[in-house]
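A note from the maintainers: we've had questions about how concatenated examples are separated. There is no special marker in the raw files; a new sequence line simply starts the next protein. For clarity in this README we add a label.
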Amino acid sequence: MILTIFLIGCTENSSGKTGSQDSNPVMNATGTSTGQKLQTDKSNTVDNSDSGLKDSKTSNTFFNIRIVPVSELEKLQKEMSSDEYLVKNDDNTIIGIVSSKGLTIRGDLVQLERNSGNAGKEFDKEDVMLHLLDITFGLDNAKIKLFKADKKYKFWLDGHYTDSEVKFVKNLSILFNSLSGTTQFEDEEVTLGFLQTNYDVIPNNFYNIKIITDKMLQQYYDDKKKDSDHLIKNSNGELIGIVNDEYIYLLNTLSEEDQQYYILKGLLYSMGLHGVSYKNTESFFYRNEGMNRELSDLDKEAIKLLYGGSLKTGNTLEDAKKTFGLET
């Protein structure tokens, strides 16, 4: 799918609009508005003095293009003025907002296009097996260690969590359950705050996501860190989180987008996926960390295989190859 947006100036006559228009006009990816036809008047200029975009020496007017996270675009959508129009792609997904002054576009267009192009894509079974081996075995993972399947897991959020994290992990539960044929997550509610400890019978295996301050994270690292803990660092080598089999601790100063990315990354690590993909550029596990922030279709197929019941905790790389019938 190729997204083409013709930026046609979208300047408005100073005499105002004529005729009726929808309260929430929409422009598709080829530039046609379903709310009101956008007119271009090259003799008019747009006053961008507030943003400093107008050239003081000429009458040229600059068209401002912003790339923002999806969450920011959703906020801006709720605050749209009558001069702003939604831009949608061929799948009717909102990808931006355009006005006479500029274009605001979501920052995950590449991933969105890939997902659309991969819908219903079929993979060779051996390709899925080899990808799973790549993303499972690596770093410190000589043996598979899966989530237990004796009872449901349940997310437990603690510390400085927000409604955004609560909603995100509920969606993760639904996604994981759709991929796993063994372990399942409680997908209707999340445990929040302090965990009850006086259960007669513990009802769930809890996966703890603790959002904490830098001071608390450093204190845990200094005083309580286990040998099996895996450190999460940013591109500058600074500690931003710690993950293990049943928990992930993250800084509360991360952006919402980064917070969700590292929650997913931590969960996948705890699930037993410690490796890297060097050839599947669309994979979440691709070597350029953070380049892809959602699971690819191939990743999902690999997780289905990992949690399909044929592989067990303690299996080595050689064991997995024998299970799959691959050469060892």
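[label: protein 2]
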Amino acid sequence: MWKFNKKITAILGTATLVIGLVALPAMAGTTEQPRNGWVGQMQGFMMQTFSPEQHQELMNSNDMQNLHNSQGMQDAMQTGDVKAMQEFMNSDPNVKALMGQDNLDK
């Protein structure tokens, strides 16, 4: 009986260790977003240019929501075309007024 309990304990311990080793990388990847690509570029720009409060106010504005939801901007985001995104932001006078021309020129 004693050997049987040792085997069960060894099997359960090994299974727990394997599950933990498999789950750990998956859990670690959920807390950070990569800083590469256009998402990272936009995040970096927003963090350098605006305070968290200004960023939240800008993103919650109706003008920015309308621009974000426009078909042209959605297409640009799907393809990762940062230049097209910049052109859309520069072409909308309401968004330009919210962001400020100096910030758009950066």
